[in-house]
């Protein structure tokens, strides 16, 4: 997260679990099955957005007088928010934050194998959203 994209971005892993890897060149996940790496890849993309926000804050604080115009700041903020929503909108249903709660206020499916990943994605997305607004 402390490195900026200009310093290089490592490739993200394939969106496949180990048991799906074969000697074939063409990898394909079974239809309807969500890989456990899907959540990791989503959080990695969110951290790339967060890194961009932090780099921007460092840059603007170093020399605020030579910063971008209000129009350019608004363009960047809009683009960053669109990128955030693209990551979240591309998530399978298993990794989306649960919005339905029972009478006690608990998520309806806390025992889902993806519950922890969905929570991590939700918290990271909120951090990115705050960083976008702050920068």
Poorly predicted sequence stretches spanning 5 or more consecutive residues: none
Helix content: 40-55%
Quote the beta fraction: under 5%
Tell me the Rg in angstroms: 18 Å
Helices, by number, come to 3
The strand count comes to 0
Described by the principal axes of the CA atoms, the overall outline is elongated
Distance between the termini: 16 Å
Quaternary form:
single chain
Which structural class do the helices and strands define?
Answer: mainly alpha
Main β-sheet: number of strands, strand sense, barrel status? none
Overall pLDDT: 76
N to C succession of SSEs: HHH
Description of the molecule:
- The chain has helices spanning 37-62, 70-89, 115-134.
- It is 49% helix and 0% strand.
- By secondary structure, it is mainly α.
- It is elongated.
- The mean pLDDT is 76.
- It has three helices and no strands.
- Helix 1 runs antiparallel to helix 2 and helix 2 (70-89) runs antiparallel to helix 3.
- It has a domain at 78-97 and 114-135.
């Amino acid at each position: 997260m402390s490195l900026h994209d200009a310093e290089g971005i490592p490739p993200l892993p394939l969106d496949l679990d180990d048991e799906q890897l074969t000697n074939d060149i063409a990898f394909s996940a079974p239809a309807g099955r969500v890989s456990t790496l899907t959540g990791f890849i989503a959080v990695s993309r969110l951290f790339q957005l967060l890194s961009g926000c932090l780099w921007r804050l460092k840059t603007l604080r170093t020399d605020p007088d030579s910063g971008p115009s209000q129009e350019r700041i608004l363009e960047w903020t809009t683009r960053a928010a669109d990128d955030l929503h693209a990551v979240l909108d591309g998530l399978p249903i298993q990794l989306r934050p649960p919005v339905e709660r029972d009478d006690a206020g608990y998520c309806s499916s806390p025992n889902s194998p993806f519950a922890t990943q969905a929570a991590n994605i939700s918290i990271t997305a909120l951090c990115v959203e705050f960083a976008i607004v702050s920068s």
